[in-house]
DNA sequence: GCGAGTTGCTTGTGCCTACAACTAAGCGGG
DNA sequence: CCCGCTTAGTTGTAGGCACAAGCAACTCGC
């Protein structure tokens, strides 16, 4: 809205850019999810959760820390970890320092699963995004994404969002 | 994978761009959905469905055509239209030319609902995306999105993806 | 040390979506 | 005509996710 109460509509060129961008935002998650689901039986969120654990010291993180890294709510993460635990990819253990807390640890099977899934996932990212762009465009996309992230997540509580 | 079987990993700069872009793709749908849900009681998909109908001749489309415009599967659209029908925003009617087909029509209440929701939605798009970027970046984003779309939707069956 | 308030996590409930099976209607060859 | 195939749409089932309620454990002031 402008100060006189009328909305500020998008110009034609803005609208054209937005339309295409909105389509990408709508379609891309499905593409990433489908590939991982089909080839490795993991959702993209599963994969990302395992990846975060695989990079942590001792391959272990407290639930709260893992939720922050995956940009998830705690209830959501709790259920996902339960599922991964049933699959034997993650193990829960009580935290020694704070008995309220729970540690999630990547198991050996979990480590193998991440290693197995990574190449196909990276290939999908390349095929659908990186290799579709010129090197300059990749750089621009990074800068644009940073600018948008500043609006989406002003508190800046996400950091390691990765592939 | 490269031809020798080893995966082609991302370079540091590619990875940095991808990490940020992935975060945007993850967070943006939630932001758009939340605003519409909170202010208008609609999901983003609901809104988009109504918007597509509002632009169609007689504010009417066959289910299949509407599914194509919203980039949805027919089962998904069927349930969404059922919900919108219960809310009195859309009406179903049998199609005269093809008795297998069903027409979905925007009701007067539906028209009012779209008009009411549009300004707030556009404002959210502006705040979270357009106004975060320079005019040049908006143009770049459009070109980048087109390139990615070419990979995501080679058949090009989506067209009018809009705000 | 003890009671109020906070933090860490899990679980109940309900909505939304995908996948697949199902009904109904058009279409075409013999 | 009628039998098999295709197309249009709906619905059964299963599973993910959000929101809010619930429970357990920690902290801090008195």
Helix content of chain A: 55-70%
The number of distinct helices of chain A, counting runs of at least 4 residues, comes to 6
- The strand count of chain A comes to 3
Q: What distance separates the N and C termini of chain A?
A: 36 Å
Tally of separate domains of chain A: 1
Main sheet record of chain A:
3 strands, antiparallel
What oligomeric arrangement do these chains adopt? homodimer
What best-fitting shape of chain A do the alpha-carbon axes yield?
globular
CATH architecture label name of chain A: Orthogonal Bundle
Would you identify the regions of chain A where 5 or more consecutive residues have pLDDT less than 50?
1-6, 157-163
- Radius of gyration of CA atoms of chain A, rounded to a whole number: 19 Å
CATH homologous superfamily identity of chain A: Winged helix-like DNA-binding domain superfamily/Winged helix DNA-binding domain
> Any idea of the CATH topology of chain A?
Arc Repressor Mutant, subunit A
Name of the CATH first level of chain A = Mainly Alpha
Query: What proportion strand of chain A?
Result: 5-15%
The biggest chain-chain interface is:
A-B, 59 and 59 residues
Mean pLDDT of chain A: 86
How are strands sequenced across the largest beta sheet of chain A?
1-3-2
- Class from helix and strand fractions of chain A: mainly alpha
What does this structure look like?
Two copies of one chain form a homodimer. Chain A has about 160 residues and is mostly helical. The first copy, chain A, has one domain (about 30-150): Winged helix-like DNA-binding domain superfamily/Winged helix DNA-binding domain (Arc Repressor Mutant, subunit A), CATH 1.10.10. Helices cover about 60% and strands about 10% of the residues of chain A. Chain A contains six helices and three strands; from the N terminus they run ααβααββαα. In chain A, strand 2 (about 90-95) and strand 3 (about 100-105) form a beta hairpin. In chain A, helix 1 (about 10-40) runs antiparallel to helix 5 (about 110-130) and helix 2 crosses helix 5. Chain A is globular and about 55 Å long. Mean pLDDT of chain A is about 85; it is low at about 1-5 and about 155-163. The first copy, chain A, binds a DNA duplex (30 and 30 nucleotides) through helix 4.
